[in-house]
Amino acid sequence: MKKNSLGYARTAVFLAALLSTGVAHAAADDVASLYGPQPPANASYLRVLNASSQAVHVALAGSEAPQTLAPGAVTRFSVLTPGTPARVTADGKAVAEATANAAAGAGDAVTVALRHDAKGWHATRIVGRYERVDGLKATLRAFNFASGCSAKIGVDGNGPTVFAQVAAGAQDARAINPVSAKLVGQCGAAASAALPLPALAAGDSYSLFVTGDAAKPVLSGARDALAWPPAAN
Question: Signal sequence span per UniProt (predicted)?
């Protein structure tokens, strides 16, 4: 009886270990299913905003596919491997300003705004970080591409201020509770048209872009999305 009891005990321990391993694998599968494939930890990120009044065909380095951007539209973040320049072409021509200041570092997120004039396409870039401010709230980011403007962003109708001051060529970020609101961008007394925020949930990330100029600011926005994993060829 003692021998049989010992055998049963060994079998029970083996089954428990087997079940434990199965649970661990199932938990890992659940995590992978929840978060999806992740880019390399040392990657940097690049996206393009069309800040002009005409459509443009853009191609950017990394994982995002070439595409035509309507006025005010923005690409997803393209994932760049270490040392890859943040190269952008607009209508088939490289935009020199997009790759200025060398390649982005690990975790950097480069947003390139394209403008068009009689001499062709030009770019302004703002470098931030690809990270959430608070995983329990929504992250709101503000990018000021309006020259000569220290931008303020607040709730329409003299509501609360969301970003008190974002210098030209700079960006800021903050965590917010998911709310329904219309926002306006201001350069001094000049204000943009109201922009309704989409429904944001905890963990979501959304970017606001102030473009135009100090006399006529324009406020637009887009959800922060990642082009990962890369599309199959």
Answer: 1-26
Q: Give the separation between CA 160 and CA 154, rounded to whole angstroms.
A: 6
Chain centroid to CA 211: 17
133-226 CATH pick, 2.60.15.10, 1.10.3300.10, 2.60.40.2890, 3.40.50.720: 2.60.40.2890
pLDDT tens figures, 36-92? 578 888 999 999 999 999 999 999 999 999 999 999 999 999 999 888 888 999 999
* Cβ-proximal residues to 161 (8 Å cutoff; 6+ apart), any chain: 152, 153, 154, 155
